[in-house]
Structure formats: C-alpha cells, structure tokens
Amino acid sequence: MLTFDGKQKENLLKILINLGTASFVGLVVGRFISPEKVSPLDLVWGILFSTVCFVVVLLIEREKP
Q1: Calpha distance 14→21 (Å, rounded)
Q2: DSSP-assigned letter for residue 38
C-alpha cells in the first residue's frame, strides 16, 4: 500500500477535489452552451466520476495520520 506524508496527501486531496469539481461544472455548463446536447449516459458517468472523487477524498481524510 502506498504511504504519503502530510504534504503529498494534501496535494492529492486538492487534485481529486479539483477533478471532481471540474467534471461536474463541465457537465452542467456543457448542457447549456453545447450545440449538441450531452447524452444522459454521459451525464450519469460524469456525476458518478465526480461522486467517486469526493468519496475518495472523504475516505483519505478519515484515515488516521
């Protein structure tokens, strides 16, 4: 299993939060400004990806240091 020091863990959490946020914002904005509508399947996968990112962040933060 990988072990991270405090700074590495903090950076990983920031990256995952940014990925999840960017994915969700891209889906929401994309549905309004895209000439081609985002398919419902793509929407589900995007929401699932964002949710997984945030769940992983929560699990990492709950780990004891």
Answers
A1: 10
A2: P
Tens-place pLDDT, residues 5-23: 888 889 999 999 999 999 9
- pTM here? 0.78
Task: Report how far residue 37's alpha carbon sits from residue 59's, in angstroms, rounded to the nearest whole number.
Answer: 34
- Residue (of 19, 21, 57, 26) closest to 43 by Cα position: 26
- Cα separation of 38 and 41, whole Å? 8
| Rounded (5°) CA angle 57-62-65 | 110
The CA-CA-CA angle for residues 22, 61, 64, to 5°, reads 160
